[in-house]
């Protein structure tokens, strides 16, 4: 494991521009500078105060934190209901008419849901789940496009204390089946499809295939989204139920079930360094506090803001910062179903103008894709409503930061570059708008109460100016509570690399002023367009194909997606190399994992560089992929191999 110094990263570290907070913004900011001191003095007391002030409890907690390393329990003894905190309490306080979501379908249809609407819809959906036999503790799988029924389904589960596991709609049947099985989900909620680039995506068909190989699902609840367009949908009698047929006739009353603070709220599967995705465990009270408080402080959310986190709810960003955090803060949000380029590359800017969006949160990949299309697209629209911007998912290069600042933020809006992970649940390293002087490309400082450090290979703190591994030294309320069903893997993955601290898997550097600069993953995890994909997952998908003997996968730098997947493949002797086969192999990966994992480059090669002990030397493959001179080859068993690979033909790229 080594922190590789990529050329863009060096450019990033040479960045010297700084953006001090604007005094007018600072004067009205939610966050205050003294939060850092308060939290530092007594981080448990800090979170306990916030938990009492910001959440509504059915039963108050007794103990703030039980820390039996690496297992944390927050707000022990307390009980609450997450859906009540996200919906009902706002209605009870007179905010029933406030818009919770402005939803925009890709074809142009729209729907507005107030908090009162949300309460009614969530209650009806929860009653439908009860009718299907779902009880507190039962797992529900959700595989849906970005339509209002997706957050409604999640909140319906939370209302009953039935943990959900949302599977991103772009994942394959096989990926869905694996997650359903691991979670032993009882009900699957899906849709007949969703709209993407003008075409319906057939989710129900994919779900049906998944259900052929998974046994725990008793019922499938299907939202009708594309059927009107004449898409055929097969419903299996006794198992499949249309959402509108069962949900619409339910009572609008469904009492929220109070659950313990540590009750499982959801599982979200993410890639690690093995082929099997990990079910990340998030529980109720600490998660809700961590996401809602960071959302309020970092995005400076005010009652009249129109907030748009443009992620997909299928990823953690959507869970924490489209659904739970914002709703707990009674925020008005935007939900957009489709692609940013449909019908044209100004779709987002049209939405910002139409809805007067004030806060926008997106990923560097999206920003770079917009940059590539040129600043004319945003320039055609009135973006003057925007007062705050956020970035997440990958390191943001200063060039993209500055473009975002100028062309989307009008040179005024502060940018929060927010570092966090599926595992951390909430943002942990970020500027606070109105307080922090930002530097383009730096996520700046740990959030109040968070203790982050950069350490060397032996776990020693690296002095300012140095690089190493990012670690977290004390628990935080939204942290993962484990890997579902596998406490040993949890300990191994996150808590064994360095004694007593959480190892994030990211390289980082701190400059002389203590600013954190994130340098990307240091393990075998790629970050493609902000999506985490493990090299080993793609390799096992490739060797699953009958023509493949062996495969090695690396991330290659990409100007838009950050990294792109580069696969080196050795064919079995009976297989004939051909362009058609290469295409088939790329498609095969898309089928096994999902289109996001389709290798952009695939090279057929007679051999792979290995150490004498047989370990594939990915470092050399990365050199080949980047077309740069080879690093140290002394441990290579057969030095001729790399030259052989370089001269290989049979290469395909998109
Ligand atoms: C990367 C997404 C640099 C990092 C919320 C992390 C970032 C992984 C940033 C988690 C950032 C996320 N700067 N890198 N601001 N935000 N990352 O689980 O490598 O999908 O470990 O969670 O994304 O990805 P995940």
Features:
Rossmann fold, globular, 654 residues, eight-stranded mixed beta sheet, alpha/beta, GMP Synthetase, Chain A, domain 3, binds 5'-O-[(S)-ethoxy(hydroxy)phosphoryl]adenosine, single chain
Quick synopsis:
The protein contains 21 helices and 31 strands.
Textual characterization of the structure:
- The protein is 32% helix and 23% strand.
- By secondary structure, it is α/β, with parallel strands linked by helices.
- The strands form eight sheets. Strands 12-11-8-6-7-14-15-23 form an eight-stranded mixed sheet, sandwiched between helices. Strands 5-4-17-16-18-19-20 form a seven-stranded mixed sheet, sandwiched between helices. A four-stranded antiparallel sheet has the order 21-22-24-25.
- A hairpin with a 2-residue loop joins β9 and β10.
- It starts with 6 loop residues before the first helix and ends with a strand.
- The model has no long low-confidence stretch (mean pLDDT 93).
- The structure holds 5'-O-[(S)-ethoxy(hydroxy)phosphoryl]adenosine.
- 5'-O-[(S)-ethoxy(hydroxy)phosphoryl]adenosine binds next to α12, β20, β24 and β25.
Heterogens: 5'-O-[(S)-ethoxy(hydroxy)phosphoryl]adenosine
Show unreliable segments.
none
Oligomer: single chain
Secondary structure category: alpha/beta
Fraction of residues in helix: 25-40%
Tell me, briefly, the overall form.
Answer: globular
Q: So how many helices?
A: 21
- N-C termini distance: 30 Å
* CATH architecture descriptor text of the largest domain: 3-Layer(aba) Sandwich
CATH topology annotation of the largest domain: Rossmann fold
Q: What is the CATH class designation of the largest domain? A: Alpha Beta
Major beta sheet, specifics? 8 strands, mixed
How many strands? 31
Sheet with most strands: strand arrangement: 12-11-8-6-7-14-15-23
């Amino acid at each position: 494991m080594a922190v590789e110094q990529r050329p863009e990263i060096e450019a990033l570290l040479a960045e010297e521009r700084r953006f001090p907070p604007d005094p007018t913004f600072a004067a009205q900011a939610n966050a205050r500078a003294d939060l850092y001191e308060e939290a530092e003095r007594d981080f448990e007391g800090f979170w306990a105060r916030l938990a009492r002030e910001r959440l509504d409890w059915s039963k108050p907690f007794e103990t703030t934190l039980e820390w039996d390393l690496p297992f944390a329990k927050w707000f022990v003894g307390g009980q609450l209901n997450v859906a009540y905190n996200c919906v009902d309490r706002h209605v009870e306080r007179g905010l029933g008419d406030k818009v919770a979501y402005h939803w925009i379908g890709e074809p142009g249809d729209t729907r507005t849901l107030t908090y009162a609407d949300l309460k009614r819809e969530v209650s009806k959906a929860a009653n439908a789940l009860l009718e299907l036999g779902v009880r507190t503790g039962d797992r529900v799988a959700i595989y849906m496009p970005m339509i209002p029924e997706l957050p409604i389904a999640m909140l319906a589960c939370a209302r009953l204390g039935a943990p959900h596991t949302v599977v991103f709609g772009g994942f394959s049947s096989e990926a869905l089946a694996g997650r359903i099985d691991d979670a032993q989900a009882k009900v699957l909620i899906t849709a007949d499809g969703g709209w993407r680039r003008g075409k319906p995506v057939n989710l129900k068909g994919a779900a049906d295939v998944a259900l052929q190989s998974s046994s725990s699902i008793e019922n499938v609840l299907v939202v009708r989204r594309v059927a009107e367009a004449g898409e055929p949908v097969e419903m299996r009698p006794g198992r499949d139920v249309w959402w509108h047929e069962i949900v619409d006739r339910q009572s609008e009353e469904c009492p929220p079930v109070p659950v313990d603070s540590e009750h499982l709220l959801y599982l979200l599967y993410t890639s690690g360094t093995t082929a099997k995705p990990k079910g990340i465990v998030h529980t109720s009270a600490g998660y809700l506090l961590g996401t809602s408080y960071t959302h309020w402080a970092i995005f400076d959310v005010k009652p009249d803001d129109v907030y748009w986190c443009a992620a997909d709810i299928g990823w953690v960003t959507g869970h924490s910062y489209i659904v739970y955090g914002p709703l707990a803060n009674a925020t008005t949000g935007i939900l957009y179903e489709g692609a940013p380029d449909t019908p044209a590359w100004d779709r987002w800017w049209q939405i910002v103008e139409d809805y007067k969006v004030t806060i926008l949160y997106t990923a560097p990949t999206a920003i770079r894709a917009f940059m590539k299309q040129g600043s004319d697209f945003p320039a055609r629209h009135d973006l003057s409503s925007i007062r705050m911007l956020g970035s997440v998912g990958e390191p943001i290069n200063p060039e993209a930061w500055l473009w975002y600042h100028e062309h989307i933020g009008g040179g005024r809006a502060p940018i929060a570059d927010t570092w966090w992970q599926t595992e951390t649940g909430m943002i942990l390293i970020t500027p606070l708008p109105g307080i922090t002087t930002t530097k383009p490309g730096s996520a700046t400082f740990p959030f109040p109460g968070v203790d982050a450090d950069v350490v060397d290979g032996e776990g020693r703190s690296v002095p300012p100016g140095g690089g190493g591994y990012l670690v977290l030294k004390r628990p935080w309320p939204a942290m993962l509570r484990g890997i579902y069903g596998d406490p040993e893997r949890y300990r191994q993955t996150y808590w064994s690399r360095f004694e007593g601290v959480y190892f994030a898997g990211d390289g980082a550097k701190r400059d002389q002023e203590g600013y954190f600069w994130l340098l990307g993953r240091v393990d075998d995890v790629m970050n493609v367009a902000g999506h985490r994909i493990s090299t080993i997952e793609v390799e096992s998908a490739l060797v699953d194909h009958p023509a493949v003997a062996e495969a090695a996968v690396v991330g290659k730098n990409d100007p838009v997606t950050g990294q792109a997947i580069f696969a080196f493949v050795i064919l079995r002797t009976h297989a004939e190399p051909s362009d058609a086969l290469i295409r088939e192999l790329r498609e095969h990966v898309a089928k096994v994992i999902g289109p996001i994992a389709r290798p952009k480059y695939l090279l057929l090669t007679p051999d792979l560089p290995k150490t004498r002990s047989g370990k594939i030397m990915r470092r050399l493959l990365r050199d080949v992929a980047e077309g740069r001179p080879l690093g140290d080859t002394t441990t290579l068993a057969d030095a001729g191999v790399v030259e052989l690979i370089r001269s290989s033909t049979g290469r395909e790229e998109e």
